[in-house]
Amino acid sequence: MADIRKIRKTRPFVMATELFMIALWLLPYAVAVNQILVPHSIVTGGLTGICEIIYFATNTYVPIWLSTLTFNCLLLAIAWRIVGWRFCVRTMYGVFFMSLWFKIIPIAQEPLVHDPFMAVVIGGIMCGVGLGVTFLNNGSSGGTDIVAMIVNKYRHLPLGRVLLYCDLVIISSAYFLPNVHSVEKVLFGLTFTVITATAIDWIMRQIRQSVQFFIFSEKYAAIADAINTKIPRGVTILEGEGWYSKKPIHVITVLAKKNESNRIFSLVREIDPNAFVSQSETIGVFGQGFDPIQK
């Protein structure tokens, strides 16, 4: 009962932290678009790319923030009925801050990064990091994420493939704009998409990466108590037998975040310097202190 009460008390704090992180990390995305990419007339993928196309096609008459907010509201109204309200609530929050940052941050007359290729690289990293942290906090920037969820509801296509097709169509169509009309800029847009996707994957792997420990020690009880109370992480004791010695042994099994590895090693070294420790990386760990179980 005490554990349940503790979880309930921490939920509001966790949610508030996630919402703060979503709002904060959508900022570098908006900076990259308005200060780096748009001044070079480089069209990105997703809904932001569509809004850039409208911005250029109307000779800057329709601002990006306004078309972003308008299209997202229309898509969310459709998604609310098709996908459900749970997906839409946090997406609306992300859409609000995305539109707000686009409005607050002016489109630069002179690009923040003057070389077009470096603009693509730096802009892609900024957008990828911003979106990666947003996704890790269960947020969304809206746009083609909503389209992908709607399509996936009726056609069982991988979401990544749907997003890729959308991005290819959007970026390629920018070729016909007077401001763009360049194969080079279309290729810059495609390169930006690849860099952004790579940065998102890297961020999510680094933060979500977990490790598994097998610890063999005669002082297993002391080590288990220390890990359980000081890290704190759950510990499982496996009973085994040394095949050569024919002696019973106890093996400590621990799943932890990668950034907790050094603390676990320090505890083991402090209690039993002669312990035998095996550490391996895990592809995914879900539930009970790790990532939520995927649907």
N- and C-termini, Cα separation: 27 Å
Q: Could you estimate the helical fraction of the residues in percent?
A: 55-70%
Oligomer: single chain
Please state the overall shape, judged from the principal axes of the Cα atoms. elongated
Low-confidence stretches: 1-10
Rg, rounded, reads 24 Å
Major β-sheet annotation:
4 strands, antiparallel
Q: SSE order, as H and E? A: HHHHHHHHHEHEEHE
Mean pLDDT: 83
If you had to describe this structure to a student in words, what would you say it looks like?
The chain has 295 residues and is of the alpha+beta class. Helix content is 61%, strand content 11%. The chain has helices at 2-25, 27-37, 46-57, 64-82, 85-104, 116-136, 144-154, 159-173, 183-208, 220-230, 261-271; strands at 210-216, 235-241, 248-257, 276-282. Strand 2 (235-241) and strand 3 (248-257) form a beta hairpin. Helix 1 runs antiparallel to helix 6, helix 4 (64-82) runs antiparallel to helix 5 and helix 7 (144-154) packs across helix 8. The two termini are 27 Å apart.
Features:
295 residues; alpha+beta; four-stranded antiparallel beta sheet; 11 helices; elongated; disordered N terminus
Itemize the secondary structure elements and their pairings.
Blueprint: H1 2-25, H2 27-37, H3 46-57, H4 64-82, H5 85-104, H6 116-136, H7 144-154, H8 159-173, H9 183-208, E1 210-216, H10 220-230, E2 235-241, E3 248-257, H11 261-271, E4 276-282
Antiparallel strand pairs: 1-3, 1-4, 2-3
Helix pairs in contact: 1-6, 2-5, 2-6, 3-4, 4-5, 4-7, 6-9, 7-8, 8-9, 10-11
